[in-house]
Structures are given as C-alpha cells and as structure tokens.
C-alpha cells in the first residue's frame, strides 16, 4: 500500500517555492505524513464543494466545476442555512440554481447578518415571492452590495426622482443593477441634460421607470443622442421623444445603420425608414428575422407594397405567429363565405385585443364556419384566395 501511494505522489509535481502545497521534492523521495494529510484534506474539500453544488444547488457538472473555482466549502452548515433562507423567501430550485451559478460566493455569506437584512429590505420595498426570486436570480450582485452604504442610498435617491415606491419597483425590475451604480452622480447629470432640452419631469420619470439604464450613459453621448432625436423630428415634450431616446441609447451605431439598410433592402426608401421611426420608434429594435417575415407576409401573401407597410410600422410589433397569421386566416375564411366585407381594414382587426377579436370573428361565426376555430388556432395552412379579395390598409 505504501509503495503504491509513493508512486502516486511522485507523479504530482508542484513548484518548490510554494511550501504550503509542496507534496514531492526531487531532493526528498519520502513524502511526509503532513503532506499526505494536506492532499487528502484538499481533495475532500474539492469533492464536497462539487457534490454540494450539483446535488444541493442543482448545478450541472460543468457549471459546478466552474463555480467551485470561486468558492470552497469546508462544511455544509453555512450553505445549508443560506439555501434554507432563500427557499423560505420563495426561491425555487431553478431560481437557486441560477443564482448560485452566477454567484457561488453567496454560499459562504452569513445568512443572518449579511443576507437576511438585505432580503428584508427588498421585502419591505415590495419585492416578495416571484418578484423577489426573479430579482435575486437575475442580478445576485444586489446581495453583495452594502446595505447601508449602497442599497439604501440608491433606493432613497431614486425615490426622490420617481416619487413613489411603485415607480422605484418598476425601475429596479427594469434594470436591477441600478442598485449597484453610483446613480446619484450619473443620473443628476443626465436629468439636467433632459431638462435643458425641454423634457417635462413626468416624461423623465417615465424614462427612468421604463429604461433606467439610459440615465447612466456618458453625458456627452447622451446629449448627442437627444440632438439626433430632435433633428429626426421628435418633439421633446411628447412621450414618443422619450421612446425614441430609449431606442437610440439602446442601439449601437453599427446596429442602427444595419437596421436602416435592412429596411432599404426590403423596398423602403431612406425617408420612409425615418418616417416609420417617427411613428413607431420600436420598429428599429424589432429583430431582423421578424422584420423580414412580417414584410414578406404582407407583400407576398396580402399583396401590399413595401411602402404601404412603412406607413403602419406598428404592424412590425405584432407577433406574426400568434396574431398576424391566425387573424388573417380567420378573416380569409369569413370573406370566402361572404360573412365579412371584402374591403375590411385588416389593420383595425390586428389592433383588437384578444377577447374582442375572438368574440367578433370566431365565436360569432363558429357554428356556421367550424373551420374558423382551426384557423384561429393556427391548425390550418395559410393560403389566400387573392382573386376578388382585398385586405385594405
């Protein structure tokens, strides 16, 4: 047994300068009992950490291996208490797995003095149950921030701007990292720039609650963004101005230019792209894949001209699979049977809420045209009888 152990230890090479981890030295072929003990202790800790991350925290072997480089567990007493605290506040296995994979160091935190006061603070603020679970699992760094020196001052400052706890919650939900930013300095500068450009306070609050990240941008770049949005034709006193600012600050210049070129390749002119942006700024953050599918559907299946779509960019925000195709399929069937006018404005149909559409076009005609339910549930292949049918814009 000793010969076997001796051969195994000889194979382990460790830099001689590191006396704490030295197991074998060429000058000494006889490992000490202390070195053997150190090796065994280290191996046991590593095995315990990996096993705990996988079995108790739900991490995959790959994630556990990665996380084990950031935390070493000596016993399971403290991590058990941490997990128990998280579970008692509504975090599921999935939430805990996501949280620990991002921040395994939390397993070594003191649950009573470090974690519990912060969780209680978020509870008092309005985060509980599912909302708290989403907050912590999506941005576990909020549990690393100092409660008195960072979290409380940031939340307090935020409330002086957005006025209500509800707005504070909305802002944090939109961008949890706002808690860890030096928002006092950054936001004050951006808010001053917005006011200088004539943006009302109510719209500034709207920007913070919908896109708080926009207010921690580089001040000079933010000022340039406001100028560009104004030059495009937006009025600073309108909510559409704020929406445009959100879009532009969230897009890199290269992505902005790519989106313009995409629309041009689909048949829009440069002026039509900017006109569509003025009407519906979100058309510039719609994915390229979705833009192509929607434009292709309206041009190839409904017979629209590309320029016609640019006049109604809100179309691009609808789901093509859950709204556009099913509703158009229903309308096609009803037109075929003469149950709705052939000059029906399809845009008005797409704007209806789900209940209104179902009552007006599905349940009302289901007995007379049973297939209408299949069309609504996307169980029928879409096809258009173009002759004699018109889907006006």
From TrEMBL:
Pfam families given in the database record: mTERF (PF02536)
Disulfide bond recorded as keyword: no
InterPro entries to which the protein is assigned, alphabetical: MTERF (IPR003690), MTERF_sf (IPR038538)
The organism of origin for this protein: Cinnamomum micranthum f. kanehirae
Keywords tagged on the record: Transcription, Transcription regulation, Transcription termination, Transit peptide
Family: Belongs to the mTERF family.
Superkingdom field: Eukaryota
GO MF annotation, one: nucleic acid binding
A Gene Ontology BP annotation from the UniProt entry: DNA-templated transcription termination
Name listed for the protein in its UniProt record: Mitochodrial transcription termination factor-related
